[in-house]
TrEMBL record, chain A:
Protein name in the entry: Carbohydrate ABC transporter permease
Keyword Membrane: yes
Bilayer topology annotation: Multi-pass membrane protein
Database matches in CDD domains: TM_PBP2
Family designation: Belongs to the binding-protein-dependent transport system permease family.
PANTHER family assigned to the protein according to its UniProt record, in alphabetical order: INNER MEMBRANE ABC TRANSPORTER PERMEASE PROTEIN YCJP (PTHR32243:SF18), MALTOSE TRANSPORT SYSTEM PERMEASE-RELATED (PTHR32243)
Gene3D superfamilies per the UniProt record, alphabetical: MetI-like
TrEMBL record, chain B:
Main location: periplasm
Pfam families the UniProt entry points to: SBP_bac_1
Highest rank taxon of the organism: Bacteria
Keyword line: Signal
Family statement: Belongs to the bacterial solute-binding protein 1 family.
CDD domains: PBP2_TMBP_like
Keyword Manganese: no
Signal peptide: 1-23
Cell location: Periplasm
Identification of the protein by name: Sugar ABC transporter substrate-binding protein
InterPro entries per UniProt: Bact_solute-bd_prot1 (IPR050490), SBP (IPR006059)
UniProtKB/TrEMBL annotation, chain C:
Spans through the membrane: 12-37, 75-98, 110-131, 215-242, 262-286
Organism per entry: Ruegeria spongiae
Keyword Protein biosynthesis: no
Superkingdom in the source lineage: Bacteria
Protein family per UniProt: Belongs to the binding-protein-dependent transport system permease family.
Protein name per the record: Sugar ABC transporter permease
Occurrences of domain ABC transmembrane type-1 (ranges): 73-282
Keywords: Cell membrane, Membrane, Transmembrane, Transmembrane helix, Transport
Keyword Amino-acid biosynthesis appears in the UniProt entry: no
């Protein structure tokens, strides 16, 4: 009897969760579906769900009009580069905060987060002028640096919380064995923190991929990532829902696929120290 | 056939030029309108002719404007050619930010540019940007619905007639709105439309001493008329409709009339996109009998930022894209109805183009706009649907946001006008006019 | 435990991150401060090279004096507050639901977190055009199907619409963190409470919610940082019309649309002050909860 109760509950849970999940996912699903319609079908009244003439025409038009592969490559380089660079800089900082805490550690952490509160629009002119001076305008390198700096506080914080969870005794044991500081970080801590580092990596790739202010304003043709690609498909003349959907699908697909494969990592790893 | 010939000529030319000129790669910022997208498709023709390569930065209008303005005012040099409008050109030209176009080649025939366009893209008589296409605005209407309503569209209708016709054509059950107009906030969207409507009612932005004029009765008349007509016969939610939203409504047969850019004529008469392509008639923009029609004047034009490192290549592209040859290239491949309109006198003298149904009305509309005397009373500024001062874009966007809030039923006409008056005067004070 | 040696090594290891962030903060901040006391109208030919005119606090008084200022602060707080409430409440419920045994848990989780991967520009464009458009939007069809007049979402219900779009984007993030926290909940404690006959609401209130408090704090902290700066969503949907002009959007209008860098910079300083007020307020709660 108890079994059938849990069985029933499981059925109800499943139904409820799937309903909510599909509802939340629906806008993305609808965008993907629309990308396979013709422009006329995209706005047909009543809307068609699946029973339309599937076409790849929109993707063809988008591919012909813009150099998708270049935008994609720039996105990959900038998002990946800024994340890796950020992690290289953040690991030692987070390590020292976690294992050699001082009175000011918490203040420094919170101060780092507060640098994210400077409104980007307010400093567009200063940064733009600086980029011109340094010759960084429309370069992947410049953008990588900016996105790294934007996300660095988040990276440091996430890593710090993972390192905090590693028991200090292990380090002491390692030290007893004569491990140097470098060995300690490289061979003892880092392997233990790999799951945490992986989650940090993922989250920051997502944040960097989706950043749409600096990536748009500091680039022209050479370094423009997918956010700029999308800016050429919003409200041109005439019907555009299907083409916009195709462009949107192309812009979010890589990161969506990455997210799907790493779902487990994200679900268990994104704690920000919330779990003690 | 033609394409082949031109390629042949191009190869020959490239050979001739080969010795002296260095092939460059230029970066062009442009807006994602249909004519520009088409131009991108013909880039190969340019490369074949000159050897220069082109990198495109195609952006939505608002993003483009923000991008190029930042770059030019900081001398960033990210672009070799910028696509700008009639509003920016004289201001930037006056600041010395653009390369004066006085060294254009003989073949280019700069005197062939329509006088209205040339005047609008010049500062102190010097041309600073070459028009890729030009436009005014006019009435586009459904002949079938007009007939059904038992009315006949005059060549130069009054606003009163438009309002009556709109009411007669409206059929809410069939989702037919008598009239579709721009209500969307933004100086180039709803702001432009209400400004020209104001012009036809005798309203003006500023008096001769740069005092805002929103406290004058003409503005209240214009705005009340607009709001009244749109609530009777306009589409639901018109407060967020801009050019593109209305275009799609009209193409779907949901509008009786649409007053908007003349370039829209080729979209609404194109049977591929429009369900009402064979039923569209044209008329001049409406008036109130005060001698001014509610039509604007605009051009999307190509300009070269001062200090460009690739001047020679940039100038070659600018000449290619705005030349008579380019128009013929497009006509050959896509038909005369799809060539970039409103830039050159010779186009309107061409019998092939005269056969296009909207050609004459477009030219008449362009000629009816007078940027020096946009409205009934004298004004201290130049520009029909805008005021050619640097502060205008910011001010007019905020004013049009107040107006859009009226269209959405969130405040009254009087409230909006009072706010518009205050914020305009405040901004003009900040800029040192008053 | 920490020796003098490891202390100085620690400082050295922290240095790159601290120095970089200090630079990233100080350079723009000092330039913003500098501009905020200057008359800088790029379109009138003002430039750094020609020297800028010192205007004292004129930009500061003008920015606050504008009729758009207080409404913009209000809009900012409304959006941040609204999104926080929706994402936290729905996030807790969703996390509870996803933690139950069910078939296809992995797939459901993927569906729920997917919006987090969508760039803000795309999500704003999709919501605006394909859902909220009063003529061709899917919601309009739904309304018509039920025989009611479609709503012009972005003009008639602009703030709620915006809050909805942004909440859709951030709900996955809240759910993820809360779900991880729930998974760490001690099952025995809950079972014991269930044995004692405590009703589920009580169990939730006295056991689950206290356990989640730390996670909720973190969700609020991180989201606030991102939400104070939202821009693309407003730029794409309303362009700041219909009362959706936030402080950062107002600054955008001053700097880029009006091309008044001095005035916009003064606005930037105000935004930093507002952000810090919010931050101090948050730190107080977080500080208690986040004994580092």
């Amino acid at each position: 009897m108890a079994r059938s109760v849990t069985q029933n509950r499981k059925i109800i849970n499943t139904a409820a969760a799937w309903a909510v999940g599909l509802l939340i996912f629906f806008p993305i699903l609808w965008t993907i579906l629309t990308s396979f319609k013709t422009e006329a079908q995209a706005i047909s009244d009543p809307p068609v769900f699946l029973a339309f003439d599937w076409t790849l025409e929109n993707y063809g038009v988008v591919m012909e009009r813009s150099n998708y592969m270049r935008f994609l490559w720039n996105s990959i380089v900038i998002a990946g580069g800024s994340t890796i660079l950020g992690i290289i800089i953040a690991v030692p900082a987070a390590w020292s905060m976690a294992f050699v805490p001082s009175k000011r550690t918490k203040d420094i952490l919170l101060w780092m987060l507060s640098t994210k509160m400077l409104p980007a629009v307010g400093v567009l002119y200063p940064i733009y002028l600086l980029f011109i001076k340094l010759g960084l305008l429309d370069t992947k390198f410049g953008l990588t640096i900016v996105l790294m700096l934007i996300n660095l506080p988040i990276i440091v914080w996430m890593l710090y919380t993972y390192f905090k969870e590693i028991p200090g005794e292990i380090l002491e044991a390692a030290r007893m064995d004569g491990a140097s500081l470098k060995d300690e970080v490289l061979y003892v801590l880092t392997p233990m923190a790999i799951p945490g580092i992986a989650s940090t990596l993922l989250l920051n790739v997502i944040l960097a991929w989706n950043e749409a202010f600096w990536t748009l304003n500091l680039t022209a043709a050479k370094a423009a990532p997918l956010t700029a690609f999308i800016a050429s498909y919003s409200s041109p003349e005439g019907l555009f829902y299907a083409k916009l959907s195709a462009a949107s699908t192309m812009a979010i697909a890589p990161i969506l696929i990455l997210g799907w494969f790493s779902q487990k990592q994200l679900v268990s790893g994104l704690t920000f120290g919330a779990v003690k | 056939m033609y394409l082949k010939a031109s390629m042949g000529a191009a190869t020959a030319m490239a050979l001739v030029m080969g010795s002296g000129a260095i092939a460059d790669t230029i970066t062009i910022a442009t807006v994602n309108n249909g004519d520009m997208i088409r131009m991108q498709g013909y880039t190969d023709d340019f490369t074949a002719k000159t050897g220069h390569e082109v990198e495109w930065v195609t952006l939505e209008e608002n993003v483009l404007r923000q991008r190029v303005t930042t770059d030019i005012s900081t001398k960033g040099g990210a672009f070799d050619i910028m696509t700008i409008g009639m509003y920016e050109t004289p201001i930037w030209g006056a600041n010395g930010w653009l390369v004066p176009l006085d060294g254009l080649s003989e073949d280019y025939d700069v005197d062939d540019i329509l006088p209205a366009m040339r005047a609008g893209l010049s500062h102190d008589g010097t041309l600073y940007a070459a028009p890729f296409y030009g436009e005014s605005s006019m009435v586009m209407y459904r002949k079938d619905l007009m007939e059904k309503a038992g009315l006949e569209m005059p060549e130069a209708p009054t606003w009163e007639f438009i309002r009556e016709a709109a009411a007669a054509m409206t059929d809410r059950d069939a989702e037919i709105n008598g009239i579709c107009l721009r209500g969307k906030a933004g100086w180039g969207e709803g702001g432009a439309f209400i400004t020209v409507t104001g012009n036809s009612f005798g309203a003006r932005w500023f008096d001769e001493d740069w005092n805002a004029q929103f406290d004058q009765p003409e503005w209240a008349d214009a705005l009340n008329f607009f709001v009244g007509m749109m609530s009777e016969s306009g589409p639901p939610g018109y407060a967020t409709n801009g050019f593109n939203e209305n275009l799609s409504l009209f193409q779907q047969g949901k509008c009786g009339m649409w007053i908007d850019a003349t370039v829209a004529a080729s979209f609404v008469t194109n049977p591929d996109d429009s369900t009402v392509a064979d039923q569209v008639g044209f008329a001049l923009a409406p008036n109130t009998g005060l001698g001014k029609n509610a039509n604007w004047l605009w051009a999307w034009a190509l300009a070269i930022p001062a200090g460009s490192q690739k001047l020679e290549a940039a100038q070659a592209f600018l000449e290619w894209a705005t030349s008579k040859d380019y128009i013929e290239l497009v006509a050959e491949n896509e038909g005369w109805a799809n060539v970039p309109p409103g830039a050159r006198t010779s186009l309107y003298a061409n019998p092939d183009y005269q056969a296009v149904p909207f050609a004459k009305m477009t030219l008449d509309s362009i000629n009816a706009a007078d940027p020096q005397n946009p409205t009934v009373k004298p004004v201290p500024y130049v520009g029909v649907q805008f005021v050619a001062i640097p502060e205008f874009a910011g001010i007019a966007t905020e004013v049009s946001q107040e107006f859009s809030a009226v269209y959405a039923g969130q405040q009254s006409v009087d409230e909006a006008l009072a706010k518009a008056q205050a914020l305009t005067n405040d901004a003009m004070e900040a800029a040192g006019y008053r | 435990m920490a020796t003098q040696h490891s202390r100085s090594a620690a400082r050295l290891m922290m240095a790159p991150a601290v120095v970089l962030l200090l630079g990233w903060m100080l350079i723009p901040l000092s330039m913003t401060l500098f501009f905020s006391f200057k008359k800088y109208l790029p379109l009138r030919g003002d430039s750094m090279a020609n020297g800028l005119e010192w205007v004292g606090f004129a930009n500061y008084t003008r920015f606050v004096g504008s009729s758009a200022f207080w409404p913009s602060v209000q809009a900012t707080l409304t959006i941040v507050g609204g999104v926080l409430i929706i994402t936290v409440v729905l996030g807790v419920l969703l996390a509870l639901l996803l933690n139950q045994p069910m078939w296809g848990q992995g797939v459901v989780r993927i569906l729920v977190i997917a919006p987090f991967f969508v760039m803000p520009t795309v999500s704003a464009l999709v919501w605006k055009n394909m859902f909220m458009d009063p003529t061709n939007g899917l919601l309009a069809y739904l309304w018509k199907f039920f025989g009611t007049e479609p709503i012009a979402w972005l003009s008639q219900a602009s703030l709620p619409s915006l809050i909805m779009i942004v909440s859709w984007q951030w709900l996955p993030f809240a759910t993820l963190i809360l779900l991880t926290a729930i998974q760490s909940l001690d099952g025995e404690q809950l079972e014991a409470a269930e044995m004692d006959g405590a009703p589920s609401i009580k169990r939730f209130w006295f056991i689950v919610l206290p356990h989640l408090s730390r996670a909720i704090t973190i969700v609020i902290l991180i989201q606030t940082i991102f939400l104070l700066a939202i821009f693309a969503e407003i730029f794409v949907t309303t362009g700041g019309a219909f009362g959706t002009k936030t402080l950062s959007y107002l600054i955008f209008q001053r700097v880029l649309e009006s091309q008044n860098v001095g005035l916009g910079s003064a606005g930037g300083v105000y935004a930093i002050i507002l952000a810090n007020i919010v931050a101090i307020f948050l730190m107080r709660i977080v500080g208690k909860n986040l004994d580092a």
